[in-house]
């Protein structure tokens, strides 16, 4: 009887967790937006990537080197990051150059039945320059966390031409862990857009748009809690 109880006890201690690996399509990570807004710049238009090393290996993409900003916005411009349906928020204009915001969009889309469909995964920042080094943000965790010259980049953001972003070498691995929703396997793209607004809150005609394309691959991990296996004694 104690053997049966032991088997049941161990079985109840097993926890299944569904995780996903993002298999990035392009070794360069960022590609031109397939449906870019008019006047938008792509990855090689916005940044000089000649000194960036990106090498795809089975375990992920090894990134090192530096990239130079080619964008040339005014320090009095606001840069924004938002999703496809940004919230209409009251935005206060700043006069100090270090506090002027930069708006950004991060929208994940799923390729389904021949077209790209929006998903629930969207991020919006009305003041990207203030939160680019916020540890709770995804762009910090996967990208800006590894910048070596943070203070210079924090001051100039991505608005000042010829600003150099120096990276410590890192391995880029995109994962979703402990997902308790429907099957997310399939082809996806993340669309990242930066927009500038002048001191009158009027959008500049030039913006920046890139995509990260790839597939989500599902795998399961089994966590087993090892319990005391001493046979139960009967009296």
UniProtKB/TrEMBL annotation:
Signal peptide (from-to): 1-17
SMART domains, sorted: DM11
Protein name in UniProt: Uncharacterized protein, isoform B
Source organism of the structure: Drosophila yakuba (Fruit fly)
Pfam families: DUF1091 (PF06477)
The entry's keywords: Signal
